[in-house]
Amino acid sequence: MARVSDLLAAGRTYSFEFFPPKTDGAQLSLGHTIAELEPLAPSFVSVTYGAGGSTRSRTHAIVSWVRRETSITPMAHLTCQGHTRAEVAEILDDYRAEGIENVLALGGDPPDDPGDHRPSDYRYASDLLEDIGAADFSIGVAAHPEVHPRSPDRATDRRLLAAKLSRADFAITQFFFEAEHYVRLVEELAALGVDKPVLPGIMPITNATQVARMASLSGAAIPGWLVDRLDGVDDPVEVRRIGVDVASALSAELLELGAPGLHLYTLNRSTASREIYANLGLGSVSGGAGGA
Ligand code: FAD
Fold it and tell me: Which atom of ligand 1 is nearest the CA belonging to 174?
């Protein structure tokens, strides 16, 4: 196992993100996906965490399974809203005991229904950093190239991100579709004296409706040229082909521009990620059950 900060210091990292499935069937399918991606020797994989602790045990189970049963380094996401300090200490203790060394510290989103609100000792991701740092994890944080939807303005977003990154080891970005958003983010951080690695998050479009919904929630714009390319395309295989094509071109451009690696949002499927890897010349492996 390894610390992501050490991996980044040694060279580029290539990583995959999964979410904890809700059903036994989906869990089995994720197992197939991870088995199909493992031969690509990713630098690490990360597992998301349901805001307010809704996936606490499922996230933990997958991170632990990856640690025990595969050769891949895992990273656990942890959102702070809806948690007390005692709960976070317990979660971190459990991870340490199992040899998990990497945590992505996140704010999470407040619940849509105020009735779901739980008492919280934390409000922002930055509030979590001290507790995670004291527990000696390699720490990542989230960055939003097109500015976080709740930020009052771009300068405030960057100032708070720079402060957050000064206490973390690296950032991973929300997905975006044009390299200029990433370049501008890195330049703005550099102007604030931040030179920590910022890993671009890459989302291959495999389902146009789903990605449009996620983009509107996260503040990412779907550019007109991409809307045009997907316009009238109903065949899911063709949508995926376009999505992989676009993600591969963006990834190649980002690497050319000096990005310290790539973080692929897999949506728990392996095919698109394997195709992007092959297109970039990073390695190839055949597979089947992991789907789109
Ligand atoms: P924060 O850093 O807390 O920022 C949230 C907002 O508050 C921003 O507008 C920021 O500018 C502002 N802010 C920060 N600090 C302060 C301060 N001190 N005073 C005033 N304003 C402040 N969500 C999940 O629920 N689970 C996941 O597993 C998950 N994984 C993610 C992985 C990545 C790589 C990314 C990019 C996002 C992920 N998200 C996840 C989504 C994320 O939780 C949301 O985008 C959330 O709204 C913000 O998270 P953050 O960590 O950027 O929050």
Answer: 36
Q: Indicate the DSSP class of residue 73.
A: P
Q: What is the mean pLDDT of residues 168-192?
A: 98
pTM, to two decimals: 0.96
Tens-place pLDDT, residues 72-123: 999 999 999 889 999 999 999 999 999 999 999 999 987 777 777 778 899 9
C-alpha atoms less than 13 angstroms from C-alpha of 143 in its C-beta half-sphere: 34
> Model confidence at 219, in pLDDT bands (50, 70, 90)?
confident
d(CA 44, CA 264): 11
Which tokens sit at 187? Answer: 């330049």
Of all protein residues, the one whose alpha carbon is nearest to atom 53 of ligand 1 is 107
- Ligand 1 in contact with 96 (CB < 6 A)? no
Per cent of the chain over pLDDT 70 is: 98
Residue holding tokens 């976080």?
148
Q: What secondary structure does DSSP assign to 87-155, as a single string?
A: HHHHHHHHHHHTT--EEEEE-----SSGGG----S-SSHHHHHHHHHHTT-EEEEEE-TT--TT-SSHH
Q: Which uninterrupted H or E stretch holds 283?
A: none
State the alpha helices, DSSP H only, in the chain.
4-10, 24-37, 56-69, 85-97, 125-134, 154-165, 179-191, 208-218, 224-230, 236-256, 271-279
User: Which pair of tokens denotes residue 5?
Assistant: 């900060």
Distance 110 CA to ligand 1 centre (A): 10
- What is residue 14's three-state secondary structure? strand
